Amino acid sequence: MDKINNSYSYDTNKGSKINKETIDKADEQVIKAFAILGLIDDGNLICPNCQTSKYKKVEHKVSAKGVNYWTCHKCGSYGSATKLLRVNGFKLPKAVAMLLDEVDIKIDLKNIKTTSNRYKSNVDIEVYHELISSGDSQYAIDYYATWHINPVVVKDSGTVAIIDHSRMRNSLLKKFGKERIINSGLLTIDRNGNDYWLVNKEYNVIEPHHNINGDIVAMQFRPSLQQLLKVSAHKEFKKKWSNIQDELTGEILDPSDAFIRAKERGEIIGEEIPYVPPFMSLKGASADSLVGSGLNRIAKLPKNQKIYVVEGFKDLLAARTMGVEAYAIPGVGAMPNSSICDFFKNRNDNLIVMLDGDEAGALGRVALSNHLNKYNVRHQVKNDVRSGYDVTDILVEEFAHKGCTCKTCYNWRDKNTFDNTTCICRVCKKNRL
């Protein structure tokens, strides 16, 4: 694809008048916007934020009111065609001109299609165990202590952090070779042809997912505490600028668009807080990797256990810190495969489906319950999850209400006012007895 020159001039008097009708027409060209930026790979759209290019993870959609937009099902990012070009350095008139073919631009515009050669990584247990062996468990213990997670629980889970990344990379490459590391999903090549390791300085905490036999078959990489601040900052930005309506159309604006319009009106100063992925996963993880976490511990327990089903590795650690056994699905949309369902069915465990207290969690509880019903897995759904809470939030709240003076608890009390005469957390309930 020819490189786009982003410095040419555009005289709006010679092109279409920039008004809502013109912008709406330009916004119909969602795929073209991705093509202009080179964000199409083998027919699939590439998310400009999390860089996923998996089949149908990023899609062009049209709302019930006829509004064109793109959405990423992995990281939740979305927006219009003109917005996509604007955040990549093009002014609105230039963006409209390119999308409406008013300037001569050579692009490789491919149709979105099903491809038979989509990249899938291979589960490589030997590589994954070697990576874990090069990590530091004490760093991981200190990391999760931020949320008052028990160090014994952290160590038992096998999670570690990489301290010396150069040494780790050189060791893996020397022992296994670059091709095998790429096939394992740990290493990928970016659009500029450079190596990109999924575990890096920004995402250095490794959460291993074991199968029933204790083999590592998948991993996720959590952000460092410094990177976590950026993740949190974007969440606060998105929360602040969400659910704002367009004055003309009544459509709910993308948070970035709402911020930009307020800034253009002089109502706010500063810059947009960019999206930062909350974690990294193996590149091209296959269905064999989607086993979740906690299985190897559960396999060693007596049968007929009460097992809480939670979202993600950190919530599993938090649940175990609070004294209950847990199994974590790798994502709200990831259903345990038939082998895992048979495992729980044969053990006759009672699964307590307790996903996060948000809209996605509510939908996930229904979907997971329906899935478990198909395999006759004994379970019950816990729908009284407090709004906006996950298991780790519950753990932190209990320490905060005990009067803990750590930074996490201080910030929690600052953001979450409570009345200990009515609060329903375990600490406040116990104090009222």
Tell me about this structure.
This protein has 433 residues and is α+β, with helices and mostly antiparallel strands. It folds into three domains: 1-118, Alpha-Beta Complex (DNA Primase, Chain A); 125-223 and 278-287, DNA primase, catalytic core, N-terminal domain (DNA primase DNAg catalytic core, N-terminal domain); 305-433, 3-Layer(aba) Sandwich (Dna Topoisomerase Vi A Subunit, Chain: A, domain 2), CATH 3.40.1360. The protein is 38% helix and 13% strand. The strands form five sheets. The protein has a four-stranded antiparallel sheet with strand order 6-9-10-11. Strand 3 (58-62) and strand 4 (68-72) form a beta hairpin. Helix 1 packs across helix 4 and helix 16 (391-402) packs across helix 17 (407-415). The chain is globular and about 70 Å long.
Q: Topology of this protein?
A:
Layout: H1 20-27, H2 30-36, E1 40-41, E2 44-45, E3 58-62, E4 68-72, E5 78-79, H3 81-86, H4 92-99, H5 125-133, H6 137-144, H7 151-157, E6 160-161, H8 165-176, H9 178-183, E7 187-189, E8 195-197, E9 205-210, E10 216-222, H10 225-240, H11 255-264, E11 280-281, H12 295-299, E12 306-311, H13 313-321, E13 325-329, H14 338-347, E14 350-353, H15 359-374, E15 379-381, H16 391-402, H17 407-415, H18 426-432
Helix pairs in contact: 1-4, 6-7, 16-17
